[in-house]
Amino acid sequence: MPAPPPADGPVAVRISALDLSGSPRLTGCDADHVRALAEADPAGLPPIVVHRATMKVLDGVHRVQAAVLRGESEIRAELLCGPEKESFVHAVRANTAHGLPLSLEDRKAAALRILREYPHCSDRSLGDVAGLSARTIARLRRSTANGPRSNDGRLGRDGRVRPASTAEGRLRAGHLLREHPGASLRDVAHRAGISLGTAQDVSRRLRSGLDPLPDRLRADAAAVRGRPEAHARAAAPEAPRPPEGLAFLRQDPALRSSDAGRALIRLLSAHEAVLATGAGPASAAAVPPHCVPAAAEAARACARAWARFADELARREP
Description:
By secondary structure, this protein is α+β, with helices and mostly antiparallel strands.
C-alpha cells in the first residue's frame, strides 16, 4: 500500500473548512477525551492530518473538537496529497498507533474497506495497518468472497509478491517428493514455489502417512480451483513429467560423446524445473511487478528459440 506524499509542514487552516467525515471511527468522538484535550496546552498537541484535495481530517478529529470547545477558529494541520484511498490507510495507521485507540469494531470496519481497495496486499501487511492479527484479516478476507480478490499473489510488507495460499505449493511438493523421494528439500521447495520450512513440513507429513495439506488449507485448495472442497484432494494437479526422450538422450553414447551433444543435454536438463512445476501461478507470482515485462519477454524468447530448434529437428526426421 503506497503512502501518501509527505506534507510540506504544518500550516494554519480554518476549522470551518474542515470535513470531519474522514475518520475511521464509527461512533464519532469521545466527549470525555475531547474535554481532556481542551484543557491541555494546544502547543503541546501534534498537528492534525488533512487530505488536501477533500479537506477531510484523517487524524485529529478529537483535537479539532477540542479547539472548537476552546473557541478557536484555526488549527495547525499537515496537508497530504495523493488519492483519498491512500490517505484513508494513513488515517487508520495513525489512529491505531497513537492517541485514543480505535475500537476493535472500528479497526475491523477499516480493514474491510482497505481490503476492498487493496485485495492484493498480504494479511500481515493489512494487519499492521489496522492493528489486527493476520488471522483476523484472513477471516475478514474470506467474509468478502463476493468482493474483489487476488488469488494469484499477495504483496507483503517487504514488497515481494508471494502466492495467496501455500495449498497449491504443498500439493506440488507432495507430488515431487512421492516421485523423487531422494530429492533435496531445498530443490523441492524451489520447484514448488514454497519456503524450505513448508517443504520440510510436507516431508514430515508424508513420512507420517498424512496428507500434505493440513485441515486449515483444504478449503483454500478448493477455493483456488473453484471446486467443492470434497473434490479438493482428487483434483490435486499432476505436475508434468519430463519427457521419456530426455532420459534416453542422457544415456545415448553417440550424443554424450560430443561437446555439442553434452551441451544440449545440459540445456534440456536445466529446464526440468519448468517441466516439473509447469511454471504455474506460483512461479509467476514470485516475479516482482517491475520485472514482469522483462521476465515475460525472456520466457517468450526462450520459447521461440526452442520452437525453432524443434522445427529444425522435425525437418530432419526420416
